[in-house]
Write a structure and sequence with these properties.
Strand 6 and strand 7 form a beta hairpin. The radius of gyration is 15 Å and the shape is globular. It has 146 residues and is of the alpha+beta class. Helices cover 32% and strands 35% of the residues. It contains four helices and seven strands. Helix 1 packs antiparallel against helix 2.
């Protein structure tokens, strides 16, 4: 039953934290010392407050953000998620691009490690190059293009 319980915790986290930016859900579902790994970060973020600040920043930039669950797999203490984050770029600059009003859809995958009924560690990868292109940014110079 632990695997199904872990999936339910991650499902609620996707819906209430990643989609809803709900600090109470974060307090309920994230370990206080949760570790968040993301490909854009030079070092992992540590602690619930740091992860909540990322979620709130995303909510500010994409006020209507919603995250879907396309796949959810679990084994042992790990749950793997694949989905899409949808939102309108209207609340703030991201990657140097001021709000454009563009509708965005960013695919991503994550691995969640659970301990004692809470999310203890997250590894997230998403298509941020696609996001930059959707909001009208230019990524070629950063990728080595002339």
């Amino acid at each position: 039953m632990e695997v199904e319980e872990n999936k339910a915790i991650v499902r609620r986290a996707i819906e209430d934290i990643w989609s809803g930016a709900d600090p109470q859900a974060a307090a309920d579902l994230l370990a206080p010392d949760v570790v968040y790994h993301h490909g854009t970060l030079p070092m992992p973020l540590q602690g619930r407050e740091a992860l909540v600040s990322v979620m709130l920043a995303n909510r500010m930039i994409f006020p209507d953000r919603r995250v879907t669950i396309e796949d959810l797999f679990a084994e042992g203490d790990r749950v793997v998620w694949r989905g899409v984050a949808y939102g309108t770029h209207q609340g703030g600059a991201i990657f140097g691009v001021q709000p454009t009003g563009a509708q965005t859809a960013v695919s991503g995958m994550g691995i969640f490690r659970l301990a004692d009924g809470r999310i203890a560690e997250v590894w997230l990868e998403d298509n941020l190059v696609g996001l930059v292109l959707q909001i009208g940014g230019y990524v070629g110079a950063k990728l080595g293009a002339a």
